[in-house]
Each structure stands twice: as C-alpha cells, then as structure tokens.
Specification:
Number of strands: 7
CATH class of the largest domain: Alpha Beta
CATH topology of the largest domain: Spore Coat Polysaccharide Biosynthesis Protein SpsA, Chain A
Helix content: 40-55%
Order of helices and strands: EHEHEHEHEHEHEHHH
Strand content: 5-15%
Distance between the termini: 30 Å
CATH architecture of the largest domain: Alpha-Beta Complex
Number of domains: 2
Length: 308
C-alpha cells in the first residue's frame, strides 16, 4: 500500500459523499495503491449511513465520541500505507494538495504539514489560532507556522513508537520533531465550511493549552524529571534554611521576638515543600524508568542500522 488517507468524522453527513468524490478524483490519477479510512467518532446524525454507501473505503466506527486525537490514532493504527495522509472531513482542506504533500515528502522529509496561508475562517478563530501558534513556538520551539492544520503527510514509521491521547493531534509534529524526524511545511488551500457546524470552541482551547504544557514538560524532562522537581526542591529547601538561619540570628544575637513574624513559619513551610518536591522527583524518575522499560520503549529513536 502506497498511501493511506485517514479522516476523522463527527456529524458530517452532508460532506461525506462530496469529500469521497474529490478524493477519488485526486488519488486515481496518481497511479498509486491507496486506501481511504474514515473514522466515525460517535456521530449522532446520518454520517455512518452515508459512509456505508461509499465504495472502496475502510470505516472505523466508535461506540461514542472520543475526540479527534483518538480517531486519528485509530486510523493511523489501521493504516497500511507507507505514507499516511490526515485531513478533516469538513471540506475546508483541499484534496488537490495531497500530491503536493506526497511530492515534498519524497524529497527526504518524514513529515509535511499543511500551512493554511490564506485561512478562510472567522476573525476570532484566526486570532486564537495565531496566539496558539505563537505559544507553541515560545514553549516548544516549534518551527512550522500552522500546526493546527489537519492536512499532513507522514511516513508510516513516524507512528511506530508514539502515544496519542487527549488533544495531542495538534502536537504530532512537535512530538516527532523531538524524536528527530525531519519536518517541513507547504502552503495549502483552505476553504470556508459549507455544511455542518465547527467543532472548535473554548473548551478545546483549554484542553489544547493543557496538552501544550504536557508536551513542553515531556519534551524537556521526560528522561530526567528529577532535574526539575529535584532542582525546585533544593532551591526551596535552601531558601527555607537561609530564612531559618536568619531568624535564629535575630533571636539569639539581636534578642528579637519572632512570635509575631512570619519567618519561622515560612522557613519550615519552604523546607517541607522542598523535601516533597525532591521526593516527587525521585518517584517520577522511577516511574519514567518503568515507562521506558515497559514493552521495550526507548528514550531515543533509531533511523537506521547499517551493517557492512
């Protein structure tokens, strides 16, 4: 199998047949063996009924709505193609850009992300998207302009050792870049939504931010959590000890009554919190070692092994 197209679907009954027709018109002339995988993410309308009318497709139906990340993960796991293309089902991504992504991938990249250079969305959605992109670049040093664009092409090996959960689909390029995969982007077309309603809302923004913090922490400290927790613990403990020593000096040598001051309480509190942070770091370090040892996971990614 050359190409697998993975499309998460949630309440897109009016878009399904149109999207399928567009895909066939684009993929057939490419003269490559392909498959189209729709993942029905617990739709409550006639989406599954419309999917069942299609030919030459693979349909994964969830029992309920689990979210776009879970739908993508299920599609990626089922995909047989050496190249996996992901896209939305709302007709805002343009199928005609798929050959462009595949050609760019064949230049030696592992991931090609679409960049909605001229985005057809309302002003508030554009504003939130720009802020989110800036935040990603600031926290995780992401280089691409539009990580939120679902239209992407990946090599199959990108998903051999990656866990997707929450709303992590936005950060797949960041996770793969952390593992050393080569990532680039190309400008793609973007169209206004014709049917259905957007699934983008304030709750998704909050979830996305929390997952961003998770990616930041995992990227910097996944193999050495003791460095951050232990470091914070040592700083707080030392500050607490210094305050305690200063309070003792005032009491012993200056004969100052400390009963009405906050210094003794703060000193004890900081030492206790510092010790707890340090212990948390040790426990996290043990859990990380167990995580990597379970099922043979490794804190590195091997591109190839050459034997001569």
């Amino acid at each position: 199998m050359d190409i697998s197209v993975v499309i998460p679907v949630f309440n897109e009954e009016k878009n399904i047949s149109i999207l399928h027709g567009y895909l066939r018109k684009v993929l057939d002339p490419m003269r490559k063996k392909y498959e189209i995988i729709f993942v029905d993410d617990g739709s409550t309308d006639n989406t599954f009924k419309e999917l069942s009318k299609l030919k030459r497709v693979k349909i994964i139906k969830f029992r309920k709505n689990y979210g776009q990340t879970s739908a993508m993960a299920a599609g990626f796991r089922e995909a047989k193609g050496r190249i996996i293309v992901s896209m939305d089902a709302d007709l805002q991504n343009d199928c005609r850009d798929i050959p462009l992504l595949v050609d760019k991938l064949n230049e030696g990249y592992d991931v090609v992300s679409g960049w909605r250079f001229e985005r057809s969305d309302n002003a508030s959605k554009k504003l939130f998207s720009r802020f989110a992109n800036w935040l990603r670049r600031f926290l995780i040093s992401e280089k691409i302009h539009d990580s939120g664009c679902s239209l992407k092409a990946y090599r199959k090996e990108c998903f051999y050792d990656i866990d997707l959960y929450g709303d992590m689909h936005r950060y797949i390029p960041a996770l793969l870049g952390w593992k050393g995969f080569r990532i680039t982007e190309v400008k793609v077309r973007h169209h206004p939504r014709r049917f259905g309603e957007t699934k983008y809302g304030f709750v998704r923004i909050i979830h996305g931010f929390m997952d961003l913090v998770n990616v930041w922490f995992w990227r910097k400290y996944s193999s050495r959590p003791l460095h951050i927790f232990g470091g914070l613990g040592l700083i707080l403990t030392n500050v607490g000890i210094l305050i305690g020593l200063y309070a003792s000096y005032l009491k012993i040598f200056r004969n100052i009554d400390l009963s009405n001051t906050f210094m003794p309480v703060v000193a004890v509190f900081l030492v206790i919190v510092g010790v707890l942070f340090f212990i948390s770091g040790l426990m996290a370090d043990i859990m990380i070692k167990n995580y990597y040892s379970f099922n043979g996971r490794k804190p590195y990614s091997v591109e190839k092994i050459v034997r001569k």
